[in-house]
Amino acid sequence: MSLMATPLMHCVGFSAAGVSHTRRDAPSAPPAGRTALGRFPLAARPASRGLIDVRRARLSTRAARTVAPVEWRDQWMKLTEEKVKSILPEEAMRMVTAGEAVLVDVRKPEDYEQSHAQDSVSVPLFRAVNPLKTDLKGMLKFAVYAVNGVGAVEANPDFEDEVAAVSGDKAAIFYCEAGGMLEPTPNFMYGRESRSLKAAYKVLVDERVKTVYHLSGGLFQWYKDGFEFTGEYNTANVGRTPNSAAVGTYDDKKKQ
């Protein structure tokens, strides 16, 4: 074999046995996540930027709608730390008459329509569930309550806005049926929760109303103390609250 053929032999790659073969570089491994054909598996294919943004937006919206409820114990601690006062009807009436505060009824609208403290305004903490304007959870709740002959309610999403609108630069005094209480007792370490106290907590955290008060004893105490009503007050409503025992005691005293 001539010397002229040597470069060609190296190029073609003759083996020791004289059989030729073509040199090829070893195939490189496919990038991580790709198949041998150079494609990503369907589940591993990167999403487009637009799709990622849409998914993030959906997650943010769901997170905004789903707010973990605050336990009563934590609400009570906030109310006591901020020294929210429970005032008697006499003091509440004085503040309302002097233009220093607004008396806010947080009960259901139908209860307010039946009777309410004179000069109070209605801003319900809860509203009736509308099955046509709620999510799946609300629809299920509506169905379960309807089977038992009870109207389902849900938190009023505009509560803080409505209170801020009616209060303006005045203080807000919240009342419900029986009032609840902040003072701890041997049986109630964190007082007694009520709609009016929960309303006070929500508005306190919202920070748009300058001062928040709670009407001690609720509307029933207003009734017992002889302050004026719009409509006829039904004491049977108090029987549906934790303070129902107080109703019987008061009625017994009236009969004596």
Essential attributes:
alpha/beta; Oxidized Rhodanese, domain 1; two-stranded antiparallel ribbon; Rhodanese-like_dom; 12% strand; disordered C terminus; Str14; Rhodanese-like_dom_sf
What does this entry look like structurally?
It is a single chain. With 256 residues, this protein is of the alpha/beta class. The protein has a domain at 72-126 and 156-255: Oxidized Rhodanese, domain 1 (3-Layer(aba) Sandwich), CATH 3.40.250.10. Helix content is 39%, strand content 12%. It contains 10 helices and 9 strands. The chain has helices at 6-12, 49-65, 72-81, 89-97, 109-114, 136-147, 159-167, 195-206, 218-224, 244-255; strands spanning 85-87, 101-105, 115-117, 121-122, 126-128, 153-155, 171-175, 212-215, 229-231. The strands form 3 sheets. A 5-stranded parallel beta sheet has the order 1-8-7-2-4, with helices on both faces. Strands 3-9 form a two-stranded antiparallel ribbon. β7, α8 and β8 (212-215) form a beta-alpha-beta unit. The longest helix is centred in the first third of the chain and has 17 residues, at 49-65. The protein starts with 5 loop residues before the first helix and ends with a helix.
How many helix segments? Answer: 10
**Which structural class best describes the helix and strand composition?**
alpha/beta
The CATH architecture of the domain at 72-126 and 156-255 would be 3-Layer(aba) Sandwich
Strand order of the largest sheet: 1-8-7-2-4
Number of strands: 9
State the helicity in percent bands. 25-40%
Q: What is the CATH superfamily label of the domain at 72-126 and 156-255?
A: Rhodanese-like domain
The SSE string, one letter per element, is: HHHEHEHEEEHEHEHEHEH
Multimer state: single chain
Mean pLDDT: 75
Overall 3D form: globular
CATH topology group of the domain at 72-126 and 156-255 = Oxidized Rhodanese, domain 1
Work out the strand percent.
Answer: 5-15%
Please give the alpha-carbon distance between the first and last residues.
Answer: 136 Å
Major beta-sheet overview: 5 strands, parallel
- CATH class wording of the domain at 72-126 and 156-255: Alpha Beta
Pfam family, one: Rhodanese
Domain Rhodanese: 97-231
Protein name: Rhodanese domain-containing protein
